[in-house]
Amino acid sequence: MSADLIPATDDTLRDLYSNPRVVIYLHEGENAAVPTTHAFRKVAKKHSDEIVVASVDVTANPNTAARYRHLKLPAVVTMEKKIFGMREKSHGESLRPADVRAHIAFLLDQGEDPAEIAARKLANTQQKATEDATKDVSAKTFKREVLKSKIPVMVDFWAPWCGPCQQVSPIVESLGEEYKGRVRVVKVNVDDNESLSRKYNIASIPTVMVFHQGAVVQTTHGAQPRRNYQRMLEQALADE
After folding, report:
1. 40 is catalytic
2. Is 162 a catalytic residue?
3. What is the mean pLDDT of residues 9-26?
4. Global confidence as pTM
Protein backbone atom coordinates (compact mmCIF):
# COMPACT_ATOMS: atom_id res chain seq x y z
CA MET A 1 0.00 0.00 0.00
CA SER A 2 1.06 3.63 -0.45
CA ALA A 3 3.15 5.36 2.22
CA ASP A 4 1.74 8.78 1.28
CA LEU A 5 -1.51 10.45 0.36
CA ILE A 6 -2.98 9.22 -2.92
CA PRO A 7 -4.54 12.02 -5.00
CA ALA A 8 -8.02 10.82 -5.96
CA THR A 9 -10.74 12.17 -8.20
CA ASP A 10 -14.39 11.49 -8.88
CA ASP A 11 -13.25 8.93 -11.45
CA THR A 12 -10.45 7.20 -9.51
CA LEU A 13 -11.72 7.13 -5.93
CA ARG A 14 -13.73 3.94 -6.38
CA ASP A 15 -10.67 2.16 -7.77
CA LEU A 16 -9.14 2.35 -4.28
CA TYR A 17 -11.98 0.29 -2.82
CA SER A 18 -10.11 -2.87 -3.71
CA ASN A 19 -8.07 -2.23 -0.55
CA PRO A 20 -9.37 -3.57 2.78
CA ARG A 21 -9.34 -0.16 4.51
CA VAL A 22 -9.58 3.22 2.83
CA VAL A 23 -9.39 6.68 4.37
CA ILE A 24 -10.83 9.58 2.36
CA TYR A 25 -9.41 13.00 3.21
CA LEU A 26 -11.75 15.73 1.93
CA HIS A 27 -10.33 19.25 1.61
CA GLU A 28 -10.35 22.41 -0.47
CA GLY A 29 -7.10 22.04 -2.37
CA GLU A 30 -4.79 25.00 -1.85
CA ASN A 31 -6.85 26.08 1.15
CA ALA A 32 -6.35 22.78 2.95
CA ALA A 33 -5.24 23.12 6.57
CA VAL A 34 -1.52 22.34 6.71
CA PRO A 35 -1.49 20.68 10.18
CA THR A 36 -4.39 18.42 9.19
CA THR A 37 -2.74 17.46 5.91
CA HIS A 38 0.47 16.73 7.78
CA ALA A 39 -1.46 14.48 10.19
CA PHE A 40 -2.89 12.49 7.28
CA ARG A 41 0.56 12.11 5.76
CA LYS A 42 1.93 10.79 9.04
CA VAL A 43 -0.79 8.16 9.49
CA ALA A 44 -0.49 7.14 5.83
CA LYS A 45 3.21 6.53 6.34
CA LYS A 46 2.87 4.89 9.75
CA HIS A 47 0.11 2.49 8.66
CA SER A 48 1.09 2.04 5.02
CA ASP A 49 0.71 -1.73 5.26
CA GLU A 50 -2.84 -1.47 6.63
CA ILE A 51 -4.59 1.48 5.00
CA VAL A 52 -4.57 3.73 1.96
CA VAL A 53 -5.31 7.42 2.37
CA ALA A 54 -7.02 9.13 -0.54
CA SER A 55 -6.74 12.91 -0.80
CA VAL A 56 -9.72 14.49 -2.57
CA ASP A 57 -9.87 18.17 -3.48
CA VAL A 58 -13.63 18.78 -3.45
CA THR A 59 -13.27 22.04 -5.39
CA ALA A 60 -12.17 19.99 -8.40
CA ASN A 61 -14.41 16.96 -7.87
CA PRO A 62 -18.08 17.97 -7.83
CA ASN A 63 -19.50 14.45 -7.49
CA THR A 64 -17.52 13.69 -4.35
CA ALA A 65 -18.26 17.19 -3.05
CA ALA A 66 -22.00 16.61 -3.51
CA ARG A 67 -21.88 13.19 -1.88
CA TYR A 68 -20.23 14.55 1.25
CA ARG A 69 -21.68 18.05 1.26
CA HIS A 70 -23.05 17.49 4.77
CA LEU A 71 -19.49 17.45 6.18
CA LYS A 72 -17.64 20.64 7.09
CA LEU A 73 -14.14 20.63 5.66
CA PRO A 74 -11.56 19.42 6.31
CA ALA A 75 -13.33 16.10 6.71
CA VAL A 76 -12.62 12.39 6.79
CA VAL A 77 -14.53 9.27 5.84
CA THR A 78 -13.11 5.87 6.76
CA MET A 79 -14.17 2.81 4.79
CA GLU A 80 -13.80 -0.88 5.58
CA LYS A 81 -14.34 -3.87 3.31
CA LYS A 82 -17.16 -6.15 4.40
CA ILE A 83 -18.76 -9.22 2.83
CA PHE A 84 -21.02 -7.11 0.64
CA GLY A 85 -18.45 -4.47 -0.28
CA MET A 86 -17.00 -1.30 1.24
CA ARG A 87 -18.90 0.23 4.13
CA GLU A 88 -18.36 3.49 5.95
CA LYS A 89 -16.98 2.97 9.45
CA SER A 90 -16.70 6.59 10.60
CA HIS A 91 -16.76 10.15 9.42
CA GLY A 92 -15.68 13.43 10.93
CA GLU A 93 -15.64 17.11 10.07
CA SER A 94 -13.78 20.32 10.97
CA LEU A 95 -10.81 18.08 11.66
CA ARG A 96 -7.81 18.73 13.82
CA PRO A 97 -4.74 16.45 13.88
CA ALA A 98 -5.98 14.65 17.00
CA ASP A 99 -9.26 13.87 15.22
CA VAL A 100 -7.36 12.32 12.32
CA ARG A 101 -5.48 10.00 14.66
CA ALA A 102 -8.70 9.05 16.46
CA HIS A 103 -10.44 8.03 13.23
CA ILE A 104 -7.48 5.95 12.08
CA ALA A 105 -7.25 4.21 15.46
CA PHE A 106 -10.95 3.36 15.28
CA LEU A 107 -10.63 2.08 11.72
CA LEU A 108 -7.81 -0.22 12.85
CA ASP A 109 -9.83 -1.40 15.88
CA GLN A 110 -7.33 0.26 18.19
CA GLY A 111 -9.48 3.05 19.59
CA GLU A 112 -12.93 4.28 20.55
CA ASP A 113 -15.56 5.43 18.08
CA PRO A 114 -14.83 9.14 17.41
CA ALA A 115 -18.58 9.82 17.42
CA GLU A 116 -18.75 8.62 21.02
CA ILE A 117 -15.72 10.72 21.93
CA ALA A 118 -17.34 13.79 20.36
CA ALA A 119 -20.64 13.13 22.17
CA ARG A 120 -18.83 12.85 25.49
CA LYS A 121 -16.89 16.07 24.87
CA LEU A 122 -20.12 17.86 23.99
CA ALA A 123 -21.79 16.60 27.16
CA ASN A 124 -18.81 17.72 29.23
CA THR A 125 -18.84 21.13 27.57
CA GLN A 126 -22.55 21.56 28.23
CA GLN A 127 -22.10 20.44 31.82
CA LYS A 128 -19.25 22.88 32.31
CA ALA A 129 -21.32 25.69 30.80
CA THR A 130 -24.09 24.94 33.30
CA GLU A 131 -21.62 24.82 36.15
CA ASP A 132 -20.06 28.11 35.03
CA ALA A 133 -23.46 29.74 34.73
CA THR A 134 -24.66 28.59 38.16
CA LYS A 135 -22.25 27.85 40.98
CA ASP A 136 -22.45 27.15 44.68
CA VAL A 137 -21.03 29.79 47.02
CA SER A 138 -20.34 29.68 50.74
CA ALA A 139 -19.80 32.17 53.53
CA LYS A 140 -16.10 32.14 52.65
CA THR A 141 -16.62 32.94 48.96
CA PHE A 142 -19.74 35.09 49.19
CA LYS A 143 -17.90 38.41 49.34
CA ARG A 144 -15.75 37.63 46.33
CA GLU A 145 -18.42 35.95 44.21
CA VAL A 146 -21.39 38.16 45.07
CA LEU A 147 -20.62 41.42 46.85
CA LYS A 148 -17.63 42.33 44.69
CA SER A 149 -19.20 41.22 41.42
CA LYS A 150 -19.20 43.84 38.70
CA ILE A 151 -22.45 42.51 37.29
CA PRO A 152 -25.77 41.73 39.05
CA VAL A 153 -25.89 38.44 40.94
CA MET A 154 -28.99 36.36 41.65
CA VAL A 155 -28.60 34.33 44.85
CA ASP A 156 -30.79 31.29 45.45
CA PHE A 157 -30.94 30.45 49.17
CA TRP A 158 -32.00 26.81 49.33
CA ALA A 159 -31.62 23.43 51.08
CA PRO A 160 -31.59 19.87 49.73
CA TRP A 161 -34.61 18.84 51.82
CA CYS A 162 -36.77 21.75 50.59
CA GLY A 163 -39.40 20.64 48.06
CA PRO A 164 -40.18 24.11 46.64
CA CYS A 165 -36.43 24.69 46.30
CA GLN A 166 -36.26 21.77 43.88
CA GLN A 167 -38.84 23.56 41.73
CA VAL A 168 -36.94 26.84 41.76
CA SER A 169 -33.42 25.49 41.18
CA PRO A 170 -33.84 24.51 37.50
CA ILE A 171 -35.51 27.85 36.81
CA VAL A 172 -32.70 29.98 38.19
CA GLU A 173 -30.11 27.68 36.62
CA SER A 174 -31.68 28.16 33.19
CA LEU A 175 -31.69 31.92 33.76
CA GLY A 176 -28.03 31.73 34.65
CA GLU A 177 -27.37 30.16 31.27
CA GLU A 178 -29.67 32.56 29.39
CA TYR A 179 -28.16 35.68 30.97
CA LYS A 180 -24.59 34.38 31.10
CA GLY A 181 -22.13 37.24 30.77
CA ARG A 182 -24.70 39.84 31.85
CA VAL A 183 -25.63 38.49 35.28
CA ARG A 184 -24.48 35.65 37.51
CA VAL A 185 -26.61 33.10 39.34
CA VAL A 186 -25.28 31.41 42.47
CA LYS A 187 -26.73 29.10 45.09
CA VAL A 188 -26.31 29.13 48.87
CA ASN A 189 -27.10 26.04 50.91
CA VAL A 190 -28.58 27.53 54.10
CA ASP A 191 -27.81 24.41 56.14
CA ASP A 192 -24.12 24.81 55.43
CA ASN A 193 -24.04 28.60 55.68
CA GLU A 194 -26.03 29.66 58.72
CA SER A 195 -24.06 32.90 59.09
CA LEU A 196 -25.30 34.07 55.69
CA SER A 197 -28.84 33.05 56.55
CA ARG A 198 -28.72 35.18 59.68
CA LYS A 199 -27.06 38.12 57.96
CA TYR A 200 -29.73 38.31 55.26
CA ASN A 201 -32.66 37.32 57.51
CA ILE A 202 -33.54 34.15 55.59
CA ALA A 203 -36.63 33.02 57.50
CA SER A 204 -38.04 30.74 54.77
CA ILE A 205 -36.77 29.07 51.65
CA PRO A 206 -36.51 29.29 48.81
CA THR A 207 -35.52 32.93 49.05
CA VAL A 208 -34.05 34.52 45.95
CA MET A 209 -32.19 37.82 46.12
CA VAL A 210 -30.54 39.92 43.47
CA PHE A 211 -27.40 41.79 44.50
CA HIS A 212 -25.96 44.73 42.60
CA GLN A 213 -22.82 46.58 43.59
CA GLY A 214 -22.80 44.77 46.92
CA ALA A 215 -26.38 45.57 47.93
CA VAL A 216 -29.67 43.66 47.82
CA VAL A 217 -31.90 45.21 45.15
CA GLN A 218 -34.58 42.51 44.72
CA THR A 219 -36.02 39.80 46.99
CA THR A 220 -38.70 37.11 46.62
CA HIS A 221 -39.80 34.36 49.01
CA GLY A 222 -41.29 31.01 48.09
CA ALA A 223 -41.47 29.32 44.70
CA GLN A 224 -42.31 31.80 41.94
CA PRO A 225 -43.01 31.41 38.23
CA ARG A 226 -40.06 31.88 35.92
CA ARG A 227 -41.27 35.26 34.68
CA ASN A 228 -40.96 36.71 38.19
CA TYR A 229 -37.29 35.78 38.48
CA GLN A 230 -36.66 37.01 34.97
CA ARG A 231 -38.31 40.31 35.86
CA MET A 232 -35.94 40.65 38.81
CA LEU A 233 -32.93 40.27 36.54
CA GLU A 234 -34.29 42.64 33.92
CA GLN A 235 -34.92 45.27 36.59
CA ALA A 236 -31.40 44.90 37.94
CA LEU A 237 -29.97 45.28 34.44
CA ALA A 238 -32.14 48.34 33.77
CA ASP A 239 -30.79 49.98 36.92
CA GLU A 240 -27.15 49.59 35.87
Report:
1. no
2. yes
3. 94
4. 0.55
